[in-house]
UniProtKB/TrEMBL annotation:
GO terms for biological process: methylation. It holds the Pfam family Methyltransf_23. Keywords: Membrane, Methyltransferase, Transferase, Transmembrane, Transmembrane helix. The keyword Methyltransferase applies. The lineage of its organism: Eukaryota, Fungi, Dikarya, Ascomycota, Pezizomycotina. PANTHER family: METHYLTRANSFERASE, METHYLTRANSFERASE TYPE 11 DOMAIN-CONTAINING PROTEIN. Residues 1-20, 241-280 are annotated as: Disordered. This is Methyltransferase OMS1, mitochondrial. InterPro entries: Methyltransf_Superfamily (IPR050508), SAM-dependent_MTases_sf (IPR029063). One of its GO terms (molecular function) is methyltransferase activity. It comes from Geosmithia morbida. Residues 1-16 have a biased composition (Polar residues). The chain crosses the membrane at residues 29-48.
């Protein structure tokens, strides 16, 4: 056999040595396939978790009425039906692990870090956000006001006050941004038992609170509340009230003194009185309003959002919401709808509300209210978590109000 002779076996070896060429049209197919696999995994994870929770909830607290349809029109109370003063703290602790693996803990931390100036937290509940706020400026200002303050502490407090922390808000215009740090904090909730848990957390979280006596104020018709507890010379307040009622303004102790009031010219005449009236109007606003998982627990979410818009400082103030509700997946929404009544029986809230639609409806109905940002963080929750940022535009508010008056 000659050296140039090639056998069939040698040809086969040469063909087998060549690299396998994949047609170009098949190369990108791994992207959608991988995406589908990830989505299927997340969906399975979410459905398994929800189903397990549903089975546990049903076994723990089955509905005693035997009628399902009435749940669809039940009004949320803002608190779990089975919760009492004896088990409120235990109920709060049981949320730690679920919130951690769902990514809610990190979202709370990020939201609280944005709180500045005069802060209102609506539906504060057991105070699950309290440990994430920056209390340094407020603590320094409170210590500076005590008679036993040391020289070093007084110097630190003076620096905080110079930065506009201890008396933030007094006399500043709408265009100025809120000062760094928290100037005052007001937490509001309808549940006295939850507020008591929040009070104990505040004592652990804000060191100067141990040195201050608690001032308890009874319910009055004037402030529309069921009473309140104040700490650190009114810098911290816990208010028992309904989110649908007029919201209490920040304490007036931390705004610049303007004189003797509207009926006292103070030597400045009408101009000074006008300035005092403007400052008083400005001082009723909060720089940051925070609410986490509250829209599911109120009877009229749109009315509550309109209420928040009336309390936030125009232009520079922000309303920050973290809510749970409908997903962008129909199969998840079906699961939420089928188990909504069980969830309501255990937690007192509707987890299948359309949060984005509620926010959009409130923006359409409220002069100047504007959606700055709306996102669905944590893909593992398949769009059921909704993060919202709102503000009130003063100019748009005035224009819409004028158009409304002209149309009457």
């Amino acid at each position: 056999m000659s050296g140039h002779d090639t056998s069939p076996s040698s040809n086969n070896n040469q063909r087998s040595a060549r690299p396998l060429r994949v047609p170009n049209e098949y190369k990108p197919s791994w992207i959608p396939l991988s995406g589908a696999a990830v989505l299927a995994s997340l969906l399975g994870f979410y459905i398994f978790g929800t189903a397990a929770a549903t089975i546990r909830d049903t076994a723990a607290s089955p509905c005693s009425c035997g009628v399902r349809d009435h749940h669809e029109h039940a009004v949320p109370t803002g608190r779990p039906p089975a919760m009492t003063g004896d088990n409120a703290e235990q109920f709060d602790k049981e949320l730690n692990l679920p919130e951690w693996w769902m990514g809610i803990t990190s979202l709370r931390r990020d939201m609280a870090a944005r709180a500045t100036g005069h802060v209102l937290e609506l539906a504060i509940g057991s105070g699950r956000n309290l440990e994430y706020y920056n209390w340094e400026g407020l603590s320094a200002a409170a210590l500076a006001a005590t008679p036993t303050t040391t020289t070093a502490t007084a110097a630190a407090a003076a620096a905080a006050a110079a930065a506009g922390i201890s008396r933030a808000g007094g006399g500043r215009g709408r265009s100025q941004p809120p000062p760094p740090g928290i100037a005052s904090f007001t937490g509001l909730d309808i549940s006295v038992d939850m507020l008591d848990v929040a009070r104990r957390k505040l004592v652990r979280t804000v060191p100067p609170m141990k040195s201050f006596a608690t001032v308890v104020r009874a319910s009055t018709m004037a402030d529309h509340t069921g009473g309140q507890m104040s700490f650190m010379d009114d810098r911290l307040r816990l208010v028992n009230s309904d989110a649908h009622k007029p919201l209490p303004p920040p304490s007036d102790k931390f705004f610049a003194a303007g004189g003797g009031g509207d009926d006292d010219d103070g030597g400045g005449g009408a101009l000074q009185n006008q300035q005092q009236r403007e400052e008083k109007k400005e001082n009723k606003y909060y720089d940051t309003i925070i609410q986490t998982f509250g829209l599911c627990s109120v009877s009229d979410p749109v009315a509550v959002l309109k209420n928040l818009a009336s309390a936030v400082r125009p232009d520079t103030g922000r309303i920050l919401l973290l809510e749970h509700g409908k997903s962008w997946l129909g199969i998840v929404n079906g699961l939420l709808d089928r188990n909504a009544h069980r969830h309501f029986d255990r937690y007192g809230c509707w987890w299948n509300r359309d949060i984005q639609e509620l926010v959009d409806e409130a923006a359409r109905a409220t002069p100047g209210l504007e959606v700055v940002r709306i996102e669905r963080p944590n893909i593992s929750q398949l769009g059921t978590l909704v993060s919202v940022e709102l503000r009130v535009r003063q100019q748009q508010q005035q224009q819409q109000q004028q158009r409304g008056e002209q149309g009457k």
